Amino acid sequence: MNDRSDLARRRLPPCRRWLRLMRAGALLGAVPLLAGCAAGPDYVPPAPPPDTGFLPSPAAFPPAGRGDGTQHTQTGAAVPERWWSAFASPQLDDTVAQAIAGSPTLDTARATLAQAQQAILAARGGLFPQADIAASGERARTSGGGAAHAVGNLLTVGPTVSYDLDLFGRVRRQVEQQTALAESQRDALAAVYLALTGNTVTQALTAASAREQMAAVDDIVAVDRHNVELVRIEREVGKASDSDVLAARSQLASDLALAPPLAQQLSAAEDALAILVGQTPARWQAPRFDFGTIALPLDIPVSLPSAWVQARPDIRAAQAQLHAASAAIGVATAQLYPDVTLSASWTQAASAMGPLFESANRLWSVAAALTAPMFHGGTLKAQQREAIDAFDAQLGTYRQTVLTAFGQVADTLRALEHDADALAAQREALDTAKASLALEQESYRVGIASLVDVLQAQRLYAQARVGYARAKGQRYVDTAQLYVAMGGDAHAWTQRDAGQGEPAAGAGRDSLRPDAGRARGEDR
Known NCBIfam families for this protein (predicted)? Predict the structure, then answer.
């Protein structure tokens, strides 16, 4: 099914020989055989990608520096359920649980899935006989053929039953299409869950990073204030000049300016967490996240691509949409062929209520009707070609979704490699700046270095502390993003959450097998 011509050739493979029987007039003999065929191609899922990894060479994370830990990838390992527990933070676990329980976005996705599941039931109704009951009453004047006319009443009541044999699988393909669309909605729910949990973890880590950077700035500001006071005292005794005082104050003001952007980053992260858990920022207080109580996962699972495509909800949703587009070809193809309907009625008719239900006034009928398209101005063929084109478009969308997802995983793996390099460099810069500051302070104390030298060393140390905290936070965030890029535990969670609301047995992934509609047709 890689091109349109292939799909067109396969639009009715099991039914052609039975059509010859119909053309020969052997309709009754062909009906039982036709009842098992369905027009259009049977869906075949795209082949999974080869297990050659996500990068040209395996990701290698160098040591990030003293006390910062070295991360490793576990190739072929599946992402565990509640993957955020790898950060070993009870506060984080509780916040994610609140987000899952209170998110309006999840409620919306659940309702949309329930709507799609009801559409399956509505489509399945066409596989069964349709029964109605009708009652009517009329008064009419009839002609007796001469000058006399009769005026009388006619009352009728009774059931009618009709049954579409669905010889060419139009209804079964509609059921297949709606089932695939419902599966797409299930995967959309999984995508919402994955985004919700991933964003919650990311915002919590962002808050921890901002708080650690703010702590570094606060320590530096405290040192700056001490230096301002020290220089003021030395000026009074003639050991410092006015320019030294101004330089110390300038350093303090410069470092104070680092705090407001970080405070805003922290506030924005905590406000975002409130929204994610389904509360307003005024009514919900975020926990105090900091890296002192959050562990960095060192062993990170990286699934094989063949298993990964079944874990990513966006890829699963694109595949379900592809299945729905395939079934739509069958629906459009079935419109090109005859439709046979059986019907029966049982009617009680009388001129008055009294004798209405007497056996003498009982009427019944049994009928079979065949409707075959003759001329529709090319509409039906155009609809079939439209369905094939829609399938081709969806196939391209599926391929692009897979490529984009591959790129996301590769980018995140590379980011973690670079994070380790950056953190190691920042650790070295921090250690060097700290040693340099201590040396300059001692040199200033014994009169070798100037105050300007001390202030410059302090500035370098401040920049190193903030840079180290920022690099550390980015490493945590990118670790969480890799879990998300691998699909997290979205599929497993959705199976538990949405499985309770399935409309009937067979509406899940198993019912998407190409022979599922045929089996239902034989059992009806």
Answer: outer_NodT
Q: Helix (H, G, I), strand (E, B), or coil: what is residue 52? A: coil
With b meaning 16 or more CB within 10 Å and e meaning fewer, what string describes 57-88?
Answer: eebebeebbeebbebebeeeebbeebbbebbe
Mean pLDDT, consecutive 10-residue segments, the chain of 524 residues? 45 48 47 63 90 70 62 89 95 96 94 94 92 78 60 75 92 96 95 97 96 90 87 86 89 91 96 96 94 92 90 95 96 94 81 60 83 92 96 96 94 92 92 93 87 81 89 95 94 76 39 37 37
CATH 1.20.1600.10 is held by the domain 44-127+167-336+378-523? yes
Q: What is the DSSP string of 155-200?
A: EEEEEEEEEE--TT-HHHHHHHHHHHHHHHHHHHHHHHHHHHHHHH
- What does the block give as tokens for 166? 């669905």
Q: 302 forms bridges with which residues in the sheet? A: 75
Task: State which H helix or E strand residue 365 sits in.
Answer: strand 362-371
Provide the 3-class DSSP secondary structure of residue 15. coil
User: Strand 149-164 to strand 339-350: parallel, antiparallel, or no bridges (unpaired)?
Assistant: antiparallel
What's the token pair of residue 461? 């140390």
- For the residues of 220-258, what is the DSSP string, one character each? HHHHHHHHHHHHHHHHHTTSS-HHHHHHHHHHHHHHHTT
Q: pTM of the entire structure?
A: 0.82
> Could you give the CA distance from residue 104 to residue 110 in angstroms, rounded to a whole number?
10
Sign (positive/negative) of CA torsion 8, 11, 17, 20? Answer: negative
Q: Which of 52, 63, 91, 57 is nearest to 298 (CA)?
A: 63
Helix ranges restricted to H, 313-378: 313-334
Give the span between the Cα atoms of 61 and 371, in whole angstroms. 68
In whole angstroms, give the CA distance from residue 466 to residue 458: 12
> Are the C-beta atoms of 369 and 318 separated by less than 8 Å?
no
Q: Are 109 and 497 in contact (CB under 8 A)?
A: no
Classify each residue of 22-47 as buried b or exposed e, where b means 16 or more C-beta atoms within 10 Å of its C-beta: beeeeeeebbeebbbbbbbbbbeebe
Domain boundaries, the chain: 44-127+167-336+378-523
Which residue is listed with tokens 């959050």? 294
Per DSSP bridges, beta strands 130-143 and 72-75 are unpaired
Amino acid symbol at 286: A
Helix and strand totals (H; E) in the chain: 14, 6
| DSSP H or E run through 377 | none
- The residue whose two tokens read 């992934």 is 509
Q: For residue 521, which of 31, 20, 8 has the smallest C-alpha distance?
A: 31
Question: In the beta sheet, which residues pair with residue 130?
Answer: 162
Vertex 54 angle, CA 50 and 59, to 5°: 135
CB 277 within 8 A of CB 284: yes
